[in-house]
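4.2 Preliminary Data

To establish feasibility before requesting continued support, the project team ran the inverse folding procedure on a target of 432 residues. The structure was first converted into the token representation described in Section 3, and no sequence information of any kind was made available to the design step. The complete token record follows.
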């Protein structure tokens, strides 16, 4: 139940079920499309697992920290784990883990060709003009991997939002919402309570719902989840303090993510060994030390950039920072990168692959707030130029877009090209 500490003026007017109803009526065609996709995936899951999938599944959403929490869960559960996450940085295989290890290319190819492609052929005959989507194929691939390797806990991440994700068709043993920040305003809504409706919408009747959300969004999250009849478990300060990690060693957001994962694990395994050092987050392009003086981090919204700045200050006190930035999807460059301006010595705007915004235009806009900014369109070239410019005591930070980091650092030219040209066949298909 929502305690008195969560009550706020006007909260009694916040009616999750009614607000969702209105939103779905206002956007009926969009919602119908989402429901149709859910129907398609539910049918596919029933085809492969008529008696239900053998793994216990966990649904994870939130603005920030999803990948870290999942990685902590994978390491902390005293049982075999698997995960499906996104986006990948260099290689599609990064999205699939069994026992904390990325699956092989052969595994993905084998399941796709032998199992998913025959079902896709059956599907398109049954539903002409339709096909299983990128996300749906990824979910089915993960579920087949979980089954093949006897995974007891399969942890699955929402790309954005929650309530209308295809993962809603799966039976879950737990749901996790890390936090609510500022992300995807065009699809999730501009107001914090709208994002709470979307993300906490993953809650299910009787299924434990865990969250590390904080005010002012926590009350919205709790009321939304309780409207779905989910028992809510809120991360408490004493659970964070129990980790005994000094803020001078790790930024607060990392400690919260670890504490949330520990809370979930102890719910199912009260005596689990979660001693310090057992769980660590080493994800591709998440505060990744590329070279002694080069960091890559795929922060792509203002909340994540703020947390990146926090970690840079803690990890490299007294250092000077140069930034190589890319941005994608119609984001506001001045808003997203505002937090890093206080520590930046110089900024280079570069491309961000197929979804990127023009670096020259971004440099002009960001130049209104910061004097030392330039544009170098090709990420790999920009990377080499900035490496040569680095002086002793300076750190180069690549951030703003996973697509840009891929193009700057991917060692596989074939995968790098495929990543950069994602969707090229859709354009051809639509014009033919």
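Position-by-position output of the design step:
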């Amino acid at each position: 139940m929502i305690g008195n500490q969560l009550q706020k003026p006007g909260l009694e007017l916040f009616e999750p079920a009614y607000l969702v109803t209105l939103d779905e009526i206002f956007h009926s065609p969009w919602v119908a499309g989402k429901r149709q996709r859910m129907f398609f995936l539910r049918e596919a899951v029933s085809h492969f697992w008529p008696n239900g999938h053998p793994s216990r599944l966990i649904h994870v959403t939130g603005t920030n920290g999803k990948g870290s929490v999942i990685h902590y869960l994978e390491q902390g559960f005293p049982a075999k784990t698997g995960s499906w996450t996104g986006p990948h940085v260099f290689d599609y295989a990064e999205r699939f883990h069994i026992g904390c290890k990325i699956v092989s290319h052969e595994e993905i190819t084998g399941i796709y060709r032998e199992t998913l492609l025959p079902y896709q052929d059956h599907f398109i005959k049954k539903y002409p003009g339709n096909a299983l989507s990128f996300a749906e194929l990824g979910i089915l691939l993960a579920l087949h991997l979980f089954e093949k390797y006897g995974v007891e806990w399969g942890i699955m991440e929402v790309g954005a939002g929650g309530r209308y994700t295809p993962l809603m068709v799966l039976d879950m043993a737990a749901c996790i919402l890390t936090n609510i920040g500022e992300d995807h305003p065009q699809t999730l809504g501009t107001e914090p309570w709208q994002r709470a409706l979307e993300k906490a919408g993953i809650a299910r009747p009787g299924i434990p719902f865990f969250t590390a959300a904080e005010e002012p969004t926590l009350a919205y999250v709790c009321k939304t989840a309780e409207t779905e009849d989910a028992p809510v478990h809120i991360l408490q300060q004493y659970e964070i303090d129990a980790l005994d990690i000094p803020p001078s060693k790790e930024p607060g957001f990392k400690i919260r993510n670890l504490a949330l994962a520990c809370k979930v694990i102890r719910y199912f395994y009260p005596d689990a060994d979660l001693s310090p050092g057992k769980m660590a987050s080493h994800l591709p392009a998440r505060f990744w030390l590329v070279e002694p003086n080069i960091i890559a981090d795929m922060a792509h919204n203002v909340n994540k950039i703020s947390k990146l700045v926090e970690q840079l200050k803690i990890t490299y006190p007294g250092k000077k920072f140069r930034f190589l930035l890319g941005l994608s999807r119609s984001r506001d460059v001045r808003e997203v990168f505002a937090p890093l301006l206080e520590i930046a010595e110089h900024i280079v705007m570069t491309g961000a692959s197929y979804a990127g915004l023009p670096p020259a235009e971004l440099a002009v806009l960001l130049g209104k707030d910061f004097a030392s900014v330039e544009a170098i369109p090709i990420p790999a070239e920009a990377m080499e130029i900035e490496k040569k410019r680095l002086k002793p005591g300076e750190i180069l930070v690549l951030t703003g877009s996973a697509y840009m980091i891929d193009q700057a650092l991917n060692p596989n030219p074939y995968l790098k090209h495929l990543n950069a040209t994602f969707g090229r066949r859709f354009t051809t298909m639509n014009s033919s």
